[in-house]
Structures
1.
Amino acid sequence: MNILPDWLSHYRRSALAGDLTAGIIVTVMLIPQSLAYALLAGLPPEMGLYASILPIVAYALFGSSMTLAVGPVAVASLMTASALQPLAAAGSAHYISLAITLSLLSGGMLLLFGLLRLGFLAHFLSHPVISGFISGSAVLIAVGQLKHLLGVSASGHSALDTLLSLARHLPDVNTVTLAIGASSLLFLWAARKYLARLLLALGLSAKLADVLGKLAPMLAVVVSTAVVAWWRLDSTAGVSVVGAVPQGLPALALPSLQGVGVLLLPALLISLVGFVESVSVAQSLALKRQQRINPNRELLGLGAANIASAFSGGFPVTGGFARSVVNFAAGANTPLAGVVSAVLMGAVIAAMTGLFHYLPHAVLAATIIIAVTSLIDLETLREAWHYDKADAVSLLATAAGVIAFGVEAGIVLGVALSLGTLVWRSSHPHIAVVGRVPGTEHFRNVERHAVDTEPGLIALRVDEGLYFANASLLQDRIEALVAAQPETRQVLLVCSAVNLVDTTALGVLTELERSLHARGIAFALSEVKGPVMDRLQATPLGQRLQGRIFLSTHEAFSQAQQRTDG
């Protein structure tokens, strides 16, 4: 039996050049991001590097995407900090242990979901809710990084609290730190907006210009680190720097299981959000090459990556949007590109961590701010507002919840609103009185089309499954129509869109049939779907309706017409 992944078993030599190139380029991009996202999570910088080695290899063995780049990402780092800061002091030994445990729990959950083939969980969170959550998280992250740009100490449980704290500390701003942070922010913004165009104008190919444009953060890191080291700005001007980063590969160790109980919910949320985000990125890239993504394999791949992160001293990881796009554009053909990146990161940790000593926190903060502002999704909000305001409200409420109350409360609010909207819609189904389009066997809404109706017949089409939340509404509508048309002799319910009749709805329909029968009005059904009919036949209602369940609405109308003519 072949235990190697398919991509490795059938590896083509022609793919090697693209994989090597992409691996090198992604490594250059990954170094500052790993350091920055560890900072965002409240962890020592080396943990970001640790989370960028074995997790990549584990995903390459079990995942299904050829180009997804796994590692630390902004949203998962924020969720990690949000989960752990109420439990321990950031950066403390207990805090670090909890972060590793959180990664282990998240990986275990994802692995279990994959083994149970629960890949459909990717559809559990609606796109507006995910968009609102990520947009709100981006704002929260950006606000939280302002203290590093200003060189002050500030904190808060919400974006507003943090801003108020920053305002109180404005007299303490370190002007040198602000100059470094602001200049880095301006450079990164200009590079993202104009550098690719400039390189294109200089004759580079569009693909190469786009990839090089995304490597600007590494240039900012190199230049700022050199400036701080040359003038010793950490000691002469009080610029906060990364400091000593332990050199050497991470030691493999069994994670502690302390704090498991309080970390279960955060681990579940990190797992769900990370999975949905990763699958979205992986699918969008796979479609460009006519490839397929297996959601269950993605669960296994991400689960293995997080478990590997925990055993190597890292924190929760998932697929990153920006890195994956760069990996794709740089020519990655298979997950070997990720393995190359992991090997290079290992070399960096083993021999080059001393180069990060004078890296200013302000530059890492600028890197984070530029990265997350691109996650604010105004386009989805604009589309949702014009198409479906309920989805737009869910998006806005989720974003506002994250900004005002934190990541966990925000996503719970978004999911609750999304499910609430679904229940409200299904409990208020579209119910149309229908008639025959002249000269055809088609039936349409009497309020939208010029149609023929039969005297004494009320025909309704309900465009939703019938269950406990909407059955009474249908009964009320039928009773109102009958009351408005005293000459009614038959009520026909067109069931072409009814996929379900639950016990409550069955009871309501049974009561309705008996009530109408007592008044001399026949109750009939048409176009009942097979699964619904199978369950209905064995009920008292099904037996009472024998001879009054029509294969088509046309047949029901024809019989009503014959009765009228007779």
2.
Amino acid sequence: MRPLVGLAGVIAAILAFSGSAWGAQPFGHSCTLQSGVRFCPTVDSSHRVPSFDGVPLDVDVTLPATGQGPFPTIVMLHGYGGSKTSFESSSPADHYSNNFYARQGYAVVNTTARGFGNSCGGGPGGDHTGTCGQGYIRLADTRYEARDTQYLLGLLADEGVVKPRGIGVTGISYGGGQSMELALLQDKIRKPNGKLEAWESPDGKPMAIRAAYPRWPWSDLADALLPNGRFLDTQVAPFKQSLSPVGVPIQSYLTGLYALGFATGYYCGGAPASSPCMNPEADITANYGYIQAGQPLSAAGQTALESVYLHNDAYSLAFLKDHSRPAPLLIQNGWTDDLFPPSQALRIYNLVRDRYGDHFPVSLQFGDLGHSRGTNKAATNLYLSDQGARFFADHLKGGPGAAPAAGRVTAFTQTCPSTTPDGGPLQAPSWDAIHWAQFTFGNLATKTFTSAGGDPSVAQAFDPIAGTTDSCKTIPITSEPNVATYQRTVTKSFTMVGLPTVTATIAATGQYGQIDARLWDISPNDDTQRLITRGVYSLKTNQSGKITFQLHGNGYRFEAGHTVQLELLGRDAPYYQAGNFPVSVDVSKLTVSLPTRG
């Protein structure tokens, strides 16, 4: 009789598994038990979920193997050119996937952003007719991509799958930027007219984000893509700081990202090519053209840049009327990320701590990671992902997850060769406390460089797109022409952690120039030099006087006997776009300070 009893139990389990015991099926999609979780995908185009404006979205939901909703929920948002599958896995091994989080008791939502994949993407050959006609990429516009995510969550809340006010968001790069936006929106949606309204589900349930873990994000997209060098980590960035003056485009990244979106996504007016885009705010091709033309930026280009600042990032949300207190944040940026460097995290960190006090729950993670030239070592990623999991447990499930304390910074240092484990983790109660001393050098004398730049082969060698993806790359010591250099020999080894600060008096002749900065570690052992960090300062016409700007930063140990060298030049193409006009810069009374741990 035992075999029959066992068989009856199996049959009963199967019936329960496929019946009402499962509760609501997300978006009406069937679920199957696989790899220890319930997976409920959008299986084809006919099952896509219409968003608030009718654009069909490709979205999968993963549930814990057992239990009824509503569940605490985590949304995972992919990078540019990616899709819902970017963070889907059959294994929890990397501690950052739908499988990992569902095993921790969360409902996990993986969605393809509008304009990509089967959410109306597919490149020039994709189907962009019917309801997909308006489904083009909005470049993470808070009125569209962010609202898509909010609308999907509202539907799931009404179905009893999602806890309406128990939601976490995370993502990498493009998804990290959107995670930051959703954290700043918190319990608000943004309407197409730009105004904020209370976020409610279609059935009227109050909704809110309760935790956000943006990885490799931007907080100010205008500053990230056209940095002007005005942000300082010692200050709260004022509203519209990144728009005046217009910054220097990170040319190689802009070219690569535009091409990626064109090939894999759907740009307004991009398919068919003869069909013009009738929405200037979403005309990525036109905006790319304005930037490619260089300075002076046309009136249309300036309007487009301001629109990006106002609609496509998190920072400007904090200055809107009726803005809510942001959700708790754990922000991760890479020292060696030449697309979204640490300033993108620090801008938000400084603002919320200044506005809401030092007890506001915002914490930081830094390391040799992110976009190129980040190394992204597995052990570092695992440590930081586990910290992210504890952060979500505290804020979405009531802990005890041992999330980082408010203001806390966790940093790993870059080590070379790239096969060696990162240094750290270094811990500090605040950004100011992660470093407490300075390694300073400079020169009072006047030095001159021009927009002709130094050795173009050096610039090419360290371009993060076409030159190298290796943060540890070295070249033979190279004496470049037409640059201003400043050196100091290291007599006692030290670890730099933070953003080097350059202060100088300048006299520039010409318009729309730039000061490009590179910090090198020069080794006497093998006569090589390694790029440690870089930065840029956008010049006004004939600008003169005292200036202060910072480089991207790093966590890096300089060994005794090595030489630290700051190099200033007027051209660092192809990474930064070269100017259209000849410019000469005299620099005097220069000091560079490296933040150190003793």
3.
Amino acid sequence: MTKVDVVIVGQGIAGSCLAWKLIELGLELRIVNDSGQLSSSQVAAGLITPVTGLRLVPQDRFEEYWNEAAAFYRHIESKTGVEIFRESAAQRLFVSQKEKSIFLEREHQYGPFIQVKRLTSPVSDEVVGFRMWPAGRLLTNEYLEATRQYLKLLNFYQEAVVDVDTEIEQSEHSVYLKRLGLEAKVVVLCQGVEGRRNQRWFENVPDAPARGDVLEIELTNWPETEVVHKGLWITPTPERGQNRYLIGATYDREHLDRVPSNSAKDELLEQLARMTDERPRVIRQLVGIRPSTRNRRSIVRFHDEHPRIAVFNGLGSKGSLTAPSAASTLSREIFDVVKGTRNPTRGPVRITQIAQDKAAIVLKPGDTAIDATCGNGHDTLFLAKAVTQSGRVLAFDLQKQAIERTSSKLTENELESVTLLNACHSEITKYQPDGSVSVVMFNLGYLPGGDKSCTTIAETTVKAIEGAVRVLKSDGVLLVTSYRGHAGGLAEWLSVDHLLKNFAKQGHTLEIIDSDRTKTTSPVLFVFTKRDQFVPKEQSEVGEATRTR
């Protein structure tokens, strides 16, 4: 029996990113992969743009994701000597007057990191589109193959088909794939749409797959060297040969087979005809099934009842951008399980992402959630997407600037299920008196990009947390991210720590995640789960002062 730290089932974009991150952490692993099945990662064009969708909405947290992804892919290039990532501006041409009007209304909202430049008609001053930067393309096939060859050199790759429902066995300290002769501390399922076949571990993951058809074509007179979006996208692929391009992609949730469709082919060629008079030579048609989710969020977590089984799936169409960040978070959690403690030489855990991942496990459409400190709106947006229009979100903040920023973000994403409250979070029970809330999130400290002297403080934060626990339903989750590095932050953290530990003594669950144990000023995430019909007692041993934000 070969003993390794981690077994990864599936070597698509998710499995490959996770493998590289685990190798960086010094773990021994084995990827088990069925290369005979064409995956969505192999079909994907790997396009990354900062503005997407019919409403031309800026990608949430794009700067953060882009910086991490670009650095990650450049690192892989240096390790393998293979080009896998191209940074190049992308063009978006309007398909209608409505789309043009949306752009002109939102043009001022892009930036400073996301840069757009108007494109005008060569025969007039009419605005016909815009150029986006930064943008780029992951060469997915080259990336997957380079990763596979690197893993083979390390003896970390194994070609096999695995029935995870019947072939995974467990003991207290290990997981076994006996037919393959493997024993590991953790098994991670990175199966893409094939994960839907699983019944034992993560049933119905991903929950909203979508078929996408792509054509590889030859065009001799196409003038653009950048990716162009106009209803469809067309990207040059010089790595496939001269005058070669990919165009795509269709979006079909009903027909999830991989048989090339004439109707999908005709649809793509009709859209291409609006962009060029040249009749292309179709070289081949590719079909992939995107592992999409209903809430458009990746599924990155350990099993609720089996702590050595994890899943990394649901990347959808933005996987090339978001996979490195998600893999980084998961790899650190895996390291904890394998070693029992986090490697102190590594950088900080991404606390805000972990908080959202914890909340995503609990939330479902129709739920009620609270963002107690909406700030720039990132958590509010996440909660609104998770509970959908059938649910309800309350978002608090004393600073009008925060309310305005959050409102703008919600409008961009056409989300109307949020009630914004320019009020102190200590008044939670005033606006939500009953215990029907599934998740409450706090991000303490100051407003990023705002006045750093205006912060949350101990007294009102404690009152707010007491109220939040009161309004949580049984098995509801409270997530508090506490920042200790600013003036007053340490005192506030101590008060929160004392309060929640007292609550936990009454039979409720508390997990504390320190983002960097080597620094006393690093952020800390408190994950509190309410059990039964718990009603907190008033706490008197907390700090003094009044809330100033």
